[in-house]
Amino acid sequence: MDIEGVIAAFWQRAESRDWPAFGELLAPEVRYEASQTRERVRGREAYVRFNAEFPGDWHLSVERIIGSGREGVSWIEFRLDGEQMTGISFFTLDDAGLIVAIRDFWPDPYEPPANRAHLVERY
């Protein structure tokens, strides 16, 4: 499976809560980092639990996946309790094609500066 296929499978298995199959995509020494919260999770078992125990009735949809070689990135929309969030995740595969590193970014939306309102269209 190429990097884009691995990332697509990662998100599909997360959305379906198929934690054993989710874990099959991860290297034993996988490392996860969340930049905004500065959390780090090390190891397959810990990272599967980190996701399986995430609270609430959440759902995600994949907007885009781009990859080349052993590096890839995904853009997802994540919904939890009526709130929608954007997630950007960077993935690295090891030589066996397993995910060895994941780095997440969850940017918060904000209001743009008023002095450029005449230059933009809001959506």
Please specify the SSE layout and strand pairing.
Blueprint: H1 3-15, H2 19-24, E1 26-34, E2 39-42, H3 44-52, E3 58-68, E4 71-80, E5 83-93, E6 99-105
Parallel strand pairs: 1-6
Antiparallel strand pairs: 1-2, 3-4, 4-5, 5-6
Organism: Actinocatenispora comari
Domain SnoaL-like: 8-101
Protein name: Polyketide cyclase
What are the defining features of this structure?
123 residues; 42% strand; 23% helix; alpha+beta; six-stranded mixed beta sheet; Nuclear Transport Factor 2, Chain: A; 3 helices
CATH-level-2 architecture: Roll
Sum up the overall morphology in one term.
Answer: globular
Count of runs of 4 or more consecutive helical residues: 3
What is the spatial order of strands in the main beta sheet? 2-1-6-5-4-3
Rg to the nearest angstrom?
16 Å
Give the terminus-to-terminus CA distance. 36 Å
- Structural class category: alpha+beta
Name the helicity range: 10-25%
CATH topology: Nuclear Transport Factor 2, Chain: A
Biggest β-sheet description: 6 strands, mixed
Q: How much beta, percentage-wise? A: 35-45%
Q: Average pLDDT across residues?
A: 96
H and E order? HHEEHEEEE
| Whole-number total of structural domains | 1
Total strands: the figure is: 6
What's the CATH C level? Alpha Beta
